[in-house]
């Protein structure tokens, strides 16, 4: 076996470029511990309990990353369809626009479509390695594209190019891109007040980043319990808007007395409502309770400092750093308002206001808790950002909460920024990436072609010099292919590798210039010994470890060929280290023995951490999957609605050629009589269990006798009838049109009032779709 001291100090040409990069590093920058972890990453997988737990965790993280991307795509489709639904409702959508809507409802057929040829794939592999490894190109592109193009690009950037959300290299590269984009935003800012507030591609990027797996995991662990305990109190009314309080008060008086006294007219202006003594008496205790609840939310968030995802904290750090440089005279209060604008406005508050959209709660909260959550979010926003009471003067009454917590929130926002940088580890990760043979991304054809097209549109800005790598690759690729039909938009696994770097054969040759040969040999021997002990459970319990016997046992007694090779390798390494006088057999290699034992203790503790993290992420994965099902349900509703629109259009066209007559193939035929579907019967208990009934005024003892009939007399129209057992006639009937329900959903009006019960609109739509769509 060749001696490790014979390894060259630097690789020969054509690897001279790699060698030069290593030489430029600060000598001995990396500790042996850091190098050990990097070497271990390169080693064969060990199948002990820790290894199996780590494998499960890696697979789970991979599934979360993939599912997050699917959800992002679905959310974008739902947003598009929401924007078109108004036209559908008003029946003003042309046939080609209906076809465009239909495309967003098509499933991808994995058997259709085509792969680019091998030469093109290789060129795309080089291009996307360059884009991933040098984030400045994507950062520049994000600044150049229009607001209408940003979502498609963000899908590729956040969930494909840097889609492995738990892998340090990709995460750090993505954050480097953010740094570049934010720097540009600050450079071009004309006034302090406009920074990061407008709806721009940059603000959209920041919001999208918070929706990745780690951000969702944090929101669930920190907010879910607090929100769920609040929404249990369905009847707790904490409204403090004097106009609304006044209206609620006079409605109650009228219900109780049958009339209104003359001194309480309807429709009074805010100043009259505010001056009413009874209104003031109602609001006073509510203010106290609101501030107590907001305080509990604030304390929970402040206590969660250590669990805030690193990337979100690092973005806060960049905002603070850039603000200090751009506006050296800015006060700490003003700087914290910008940090708070990102952390609360873009991350925390959307989850508080619409917890159902973040899957923090089951179903839509009832009316009163929903309003309370909105007020809590406003209070936190006013605390973290510069408060503005121009539109809602009544919020001034909550100013004590802002004043009492201002110093505390500023301290928290500053502490958020106290995280280390990652440039040293990223430099090493980037270098190591050159040696990886399995670096790949999962990307759809349309993502591939769209990114190619956007780069070509802006190539003169991105790479003005024809000797630049990006320019060379795009020149070779030529024109971007057109987008394929959605049905043919297959996903492909694209291997990434650099065209201009020679892959590193092993970690030794990569680091030889910055770490001594003996340090490297010592580190690798220790790494191999740890792996041998982990792979031989019968030896793991024997302390202290006899390292010579361990290597001999693996080399001669093991039935596993990999362990035999590793045992022989360790024996040779121990012999060489003795020759260098780094270790001594006379003391049983005491130094190495102690470090191996300490490493195994660390790995034992690591196993517990891995198992805990896996449990936490399993809950996140379930949440993301639930959200995916919710989005799919919405798309199904749109699909059913589109079908009804077309049926109605056909019926209308038939009406123009005569009552009850439609034209088919140039011949007039009598239209078929509409078929009535239903009634389909559901009990009060069934609808309550499914979350369709959100609130009920029916007394508990009467609920077993209540049932509901759902009927569809014509496509797109429904009747919900509330019945009491033993009575022939319905107590209450409501005629519904699917247009009305979809419009309610679009406008975030999630409750349907049936006088005795209030129903959840999205779940009613899902139920109607389930029982009537295919009939």
UniProtKB/TrEMBL annotation:
Instruction: Cite the PROSITE patterns for this sequence.
Output: RAS_GTPASE_ACTIV_1, RAS_GTPASE_ACTIV_2
Name the residue ranges with Low complexity bias. Answer: 8-24
Q: Which UniProt keywords apply?
A: Coiled coil
Task: Locate the coiled-coil region(s) and give their ranges.
Answer: 43-70
Cellular component per GO? cell cortex
BP GO terms, sorted: negative regulation of Ras protein signal transduction
* Location of region: Disordered: 1-24
Ranges for domain Ras-GAP come to: 169-385
Q: Under which name does UniProt file this protein?
A: Ras-GAP domain-containing protein
Record lineage: Eukaryota, Fungi, Dikarya, Basidiomycota, Agaricomycotina
């Amino acid at each position: 076996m060749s001696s490790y001291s014979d390894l060259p100090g630097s690789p020969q040409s054509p690897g001279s470029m790699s060698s030069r990069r290593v030489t430029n590093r600060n000598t001995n920058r990396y500790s042996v511990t850091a190098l050990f972890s990097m070497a271990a990453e390169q080693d064969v997988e060990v199948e002990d309990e820790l290894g199996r737990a780590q494998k499960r965790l890696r697979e789970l993280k991979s599934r979360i990353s993939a599912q997050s991307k699917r959800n992002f795509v679905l959310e974008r489709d739902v947003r598009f369809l929401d924007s078109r639904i108004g036209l559908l409702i008003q029946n003003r959508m042309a046939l080609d626009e209906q076809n465009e809507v239909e495309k967003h409802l098509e499933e991808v057929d994995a058997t259709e479509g085509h792969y680019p040829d091998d030469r093109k794939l290789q060129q795309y592999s080089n291009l996307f390695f360059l884009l991933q490894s040098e984030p400045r190109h994507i950062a520049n592109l994000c600044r150049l594209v229009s607001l209408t193009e940003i979502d498609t690009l963000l899908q590729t950037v956040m969930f494909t190019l840097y889609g492995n959300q738990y892998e340090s290299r990709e995460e750090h590269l993505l954050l480097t891109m953010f740094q570049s984009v934010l720097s540009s935003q600050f450079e071009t800012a004309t006034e302090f007040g406009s920074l990061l507030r407008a709806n721009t591609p940059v603000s959209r990027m920041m919001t999208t980043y918070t929706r990745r797996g780690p951000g969702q995991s944090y929101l669930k662990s920190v907010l879910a319990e607090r929100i769920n305990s609040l929404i249990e109190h369905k009847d707790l009314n904490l409204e403090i808007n004097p106009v609304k309080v006044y209206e609620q008060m006079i409605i109650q008086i009228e219900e109780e007395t049958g009339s209104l006294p003359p001194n309480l007219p309807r429709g009074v202006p805010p100043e009259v409502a505010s001056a009413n003594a009874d209104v003031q008496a109602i609001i006073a205790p509510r203010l106290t309770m609101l501030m107590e609840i907001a305080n509990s939310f604030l304390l929970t968030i402040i206590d969660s400092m250590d669990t805030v995802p690193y990337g979100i904290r690092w973005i806060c750090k960049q905002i603070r750093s850039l603000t200090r440089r751009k506006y050296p005279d800015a006060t700490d209060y003003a700087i914290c308002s910008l940090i708070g604008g990102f952390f609360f406005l873009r991350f925390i508050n959307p989850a508080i206001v619409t917890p159902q959209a973040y899957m923090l709660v089951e179903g839509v909260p009832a009316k009163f808790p929903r309003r309370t959550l909105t007020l809590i979010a406003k209070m936190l926003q006013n605390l973290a950002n510069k408060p503005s009471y121009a539109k809602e003067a009544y919020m001034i009454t909550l100013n004590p909460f802002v004043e009492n917590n201002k110093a505390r929130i500023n301290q928290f926002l500053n502490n958020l920024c106290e995280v280390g940088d990652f440039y040293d580890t990223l430099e090493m990760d980037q270098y190591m990436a050159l040696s990886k043979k399995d670096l790949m991304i999962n990307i759809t054809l349309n993502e591939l072609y769209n990114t190619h097209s956007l780069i070509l549109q802006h190539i003169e800005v991105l790479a003005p010099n024809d000797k630049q790598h990006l320019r060379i690759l795009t020149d070779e690729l030529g024109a971007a292919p057109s987008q394929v039909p959605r049905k043919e938009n297959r996903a492909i696994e694209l291997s990434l590798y650099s065209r201009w770097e020679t892959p590193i054969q092993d970690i030794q040759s990569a680091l030889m210039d910055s770490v001594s040969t003996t340090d490297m040999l010592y580190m690798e021997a220790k790494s191999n010994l740890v792996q041998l002990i982990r792979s031989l459970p019968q030896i793991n319990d024997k302390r202290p470890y006899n390292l010579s016997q361990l290597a001999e046992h693996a080399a001669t007694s093991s039935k596993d060929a990999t362990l035999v090779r590793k045992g022989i390798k360790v024996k040779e390494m121990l012999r060489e280290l003795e020759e260098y006088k780094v270790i001594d057999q006379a003391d049983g290699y005491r130094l190495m023995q102690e470090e191996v034992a300490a490493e195994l203790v660390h790995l034992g503790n690591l196993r517990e951490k891995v198992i805990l993290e896996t449990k936490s992420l399993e809950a996140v994965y379930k949440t993301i999957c639930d959200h995916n099902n919710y989005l799919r349900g919405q798309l199904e509703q749109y699909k059913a609605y589109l079908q009804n629109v077309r049926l109605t259009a056909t019926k209308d066209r038939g009406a123009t050629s005569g009552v009850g007559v439609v034209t088919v193939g140039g011949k007039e035929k009598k239209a078929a009589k509409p078929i009535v579907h239903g009634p389909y019967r559901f009990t009060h208990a069934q609808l309550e269990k499914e979350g369709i009934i959100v609130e009920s005024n029916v007394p508990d003892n009467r609920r077993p006798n209540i049932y509901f009939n759902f009927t569809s007399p014509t496509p797109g129209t429904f009747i919900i009838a509330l019945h009491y057992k033993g009575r022939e006639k319905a107590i209450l009937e409501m005629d519904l049109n699917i247009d009305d329900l979809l419009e309610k959903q679009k406008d975030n009006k999630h409750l349907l009032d049936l006088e005795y019960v209030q129903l959840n609109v999205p779940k009613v739509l899902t139920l109607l779709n389930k029982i009537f769509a295919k009939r």
